[in-house]
Amino acid sequence: MNAYLLSFLVFAAAANVVAIPLIYLERRKGQHCHPIEYIMIYLTWLMFVALIGFIFHGLDAAFADWKISRAFSIGFFCVAGILAGLSLLPKLLLAQRKVNPVIVTVISSILIAVTFTKFSVLVFLFTGDS
User: Fold this and answer.
1) What is the pLDDT of residues 2-61, one digit of tens each?
2) Global pTM?
3) 127: pLDDT confidence band, cut at 50, 70 and 90?
4) I want to staple 31 with a disulfide (CB 3.0 to 4.6 A). Which of 23, 26, 64, 73 is the partner?
5) Measured between alpha carbons, how far is 55 from 62 in angstroms, rounded to an integer?
6) Helix/strand/coil percentages in the chain, nearest 5
7) Residue 99 region, left (φ>0) first, then alpha (ψ -120 to 50), else beta?
């Protein structure tokens, strides 16, 4: 299976397992999820794939260069999906405040994406054979 498809499927499954209960919990509290907020969940995957594509010219080449097993890549993107799904949590926690919920979700998605991308690059940098 293609590395892009595998990574996206694992990421999407993990992100939806976390995000869908949060969306239902928000609905019980009278809030609604804007479609932009749901799309922003996938920003973490998109940023990581774009960075890998920029550095290694593809996800397949990066995993071959790093000598990463499929099990590790599945776990890696599962963790990324869980973190991305949690980007809806600040909106739920700030429900009492007078803030725009879309902006809160976008900011939390961007922060999670940048943080995950930084730490993943550091992990691969320090575990390499260089």
Assistant:
1) 888 888 999 999 999 999 999 898 888 888 888 888 888 898 888 888 887 787 777 877
2) 0.84
3) low
4) 26
5) 8
6) 80, 0, 20
7) beta
Q: Which sign does the torsion angle of CA 97, 92, 46, 123 carry?
A: positive
The CA distance from 117 to 26, in Å, is: 28
Residue pLDDT, tens place only, 85-111: 998 888 888 877 888 888 888 899 889
Tokens at 77, concatenated: 């993107």
E strand or H helix at 103, and its extent?
helix 101-126
Euclidean distance between CA atoms 39 and 23, whole angstroms? 13
Q: Which of 24, 48, 28 is nearest to 38 (CA)?
A: 24
Tokens of 97: 């405040």
What residue type is assigned to position 112 of the chain? I
Measured between alpha carbons, how far is 73 from 125 in angstroms, rounded to an integer?
Answer: 16
